[in-house]
Amino acid sequence: MKSLLTRTVLAATLLTPAFISQAEVDNYRLLLQRTDRVIVHFKEKPTEARALAFIKQGVTHGGYGVAAGKRQEVLEIGATLDLDDVKILAKGLEDDPQVQFAEPDLVMQTMRVPNDPLYNEQWHYFEPTAGINLPAAWEISIGRTENVIGVVDTGITDHKEINDRVLPGYDFVSDPWMANDGDGWDDNPHDPGDSLQPGACGTSFGNPIPANTQKSSWHGTHVAGTIAAKTNDNMGVSGVTWLSRLQPLRALGRCGGYTSDIVSAMRWAAGLKVYGLPVNPNPVNVINLSLGGTALSCPRTYQDAIDEVVAAGVTIVVAAGNEQQNVALSTPANCKNIIVVGAINRTGNRSWYSNFGSGIDIMAPGGETHFPGNGILSLYNSGLKTAKNSSYAELQGTSMATPHITGLIDLSYAVNPSLTPAERKKLLMETARPFASDSNCSAFRCGSGIADGGLFLRAVQNTQ
Amino acid sequence: MKLNKKTTNKISSLIFLIIISLSVQAEIREEIYSTRLIIGFHSKCYQGLGGATEATEYINQHQLSDHQLSDNPISLIRPLGNNSILIHIIHSNQSELQKNINHLLLLHKVRYIEIDNTMNSFTR
Questions:
Q1: Do B52 and A275 touch (CB under 8 A)?
Q2: Is the C or the N end of chain A the one with fewer CB within 10 Å?
Q3: What is the distance, to the nearest Å, from the Cα of residue A322 to the centroid of all Cα atoms in its chain?
Q4: What is the pLDDT of residues A111-154, one digit of tens each?
């Protein structure tokens, strides 16, 4: 009942400009913690004399005659004060026998919703069943320009929705044929395409890999878009983080990428020394690994690199894999010291392809594209072999689920940069939404629940 | 048309050379493989060896003696950090490679040996 009396003073939808500085975000947050008005609810309609009495107590009649029988008034304090001070003032007003209650006129806002026209197709960000509750998360943080997110993937393509957010990265694909750019390691992480002819990657039990002609995946661009597509710019889609920067680390090419190149990319991203390269001038806070292979246990090459990277304060987020098998057989998802992400569909059930098992830490939307509109919408390219025009596409996979978590981890660095990767993981898992009773997921098969960005960031905020 | 003896001999020689050449090529394709291996060393041992080049040399010196393809079948690609190196090894078949790996794993300085497997993205 009390909440009905609280008037929403500011902002229906927050009209944030396309480029928001951290200072503006901080100012805005401060604004929410102060007010210059008190709402007073009377037992009966107040007399003029009573109003004068209030004036004596330090508030001015604001002239905001409110409906509801005129038993409620909004009084101007005459200065903008911290909420704690206004609560003391309101308590004083409640001493008057005619006053039923008094409370600060809180500055409210709606849940933060970006103005990107395709945002409402990105169910994976906001739907209560399977979304990651980003509007509530964005209330607390929209990232930080100083934050850097490493995406170890197929590289990146030119896209108006990401170009401004990209920092210099590196191409770690050492095999020139796989790299498809004429050489091995170089400083250009752009994705030249990874299209394949049947059998280009060899054979398996006599069957060609791939079985059919395969067009370029533009996988890295899609993953990058989920994390950091330009948001609230009245164009295209939204990304999880609005301010943080992205560093493309190309380690996958035609037929995949070598473990050795992937660990070199991870180490360089974290600011560690890598043979033959200068130290990364923009070390990352979090690394996204939407990749993997099959292994009965975590290779020591991976675990050594992971431990070293995590010791540098970097959180590593890894896809569980799409083989519909126990995640214990998928590497690097079967390594320790990382966050392992499985995929759910729009109904909150495990996506049919997602790996499962006690090795999963958390679930995030990976979608299912056989129902139109149920995939993960992000950035793409129209080229079949080489990059052509920037576009958008829905894809599905644990590859698509993972960047949702990577983005949330990035936001958590903006809220509190001093937590360790293990502390972030613990809070992420503790704040996850439990699976519905009729879900095909359980803690044993799908980890702690579905990631909830709002609750997670609030928990991170409370650690300060 | 009737071919004289000289021409017939020439054609026979040519066919013979082609067959020999093809069979040699086929043989080479069958017998030489190159695999990327990651070899990790115990920290103190790696430092004691002096670095990646020396570590590669150490591995070459401790090859199985019956290795048929080369005296130095291992070549360094690059150091990988974490006291490990990435190398190329040439071998004639999988069992020979596995035998060699098993042998090298017995060396007290070697912590692990892993094949540099390829990974893929997880989009369906």
A1: yes
A2: N
A3: 21
A4: 789 999 999 999 999 999 999 999 999 999 999 999 999 999 99
For A251, name the nearest residue in chain B, comparing CA atoms only. Answer: B119
How far is A427 from A453, CA to CA, in rounded Å? 11
Using CA of residue A230, residue A402, residue A372, residue A374, what is the dihedral sign? negative
List the Cα angle A45/A49/A55 in 5-degree steps. Answer: 100
Q: Which residues of A are catalytic?
A: 153, 219, 399
pLDDT at position A351: 97
Whole-angstrom distance, CA of residue A419 vs CA of residue A276:
32
The answer, for A322 touching chain B at a CB cutoff of 8 Å, is yes
- Amino acid found at A292: G
Residues A431 and A396 sit within 8 Å (Cβ to Cβ):
no
Burial A372-386 (b: 16+ CB within 10 A, else e): eebbbbbbbbebeee
**pLDDT at A418 > cutoff 50:** yes
Q: Which of A263, A274, A397 is facing B122, going by the closest CB pair?
A: A397
- The rounded distance, in Å, linking the Cα atoms of A331 and A337 is 13
| Terminal-residue alpha carbon distance, chain A | 32
How far is A334 from A336, CA to CA, in rounded Å? 7
Q: Do B81 and A290 touch (CB under 8 A)?
A: no
Chain B residues inside the 8 Å CB shell of A266 = none
Which parts of chain B sit beneath pLDDT 70?
Answer: 1-3, 5, 14-31, 65-72
- Give the pLDDT of residue A77: 78
Confidence at A5, pLDDT banded by 50, 70, 90: very low
Q: Which residue in chain B has the smallest CA separation from A152?
A: B121
- Pick from A154, A174, A426: which is nearest to A290 by CA? A154
**pLDDT for the residue A116:** 96
Identify from A218, A219, A297, A300 which residue to disrupt to test chain B contact, counting B C-beta atoms within 10 A and taking the largest count.
Answer: A300
Give chain A positions within 8 Å (CB) of B111: 300
Residue the block writes with tokens 């993937």: A153
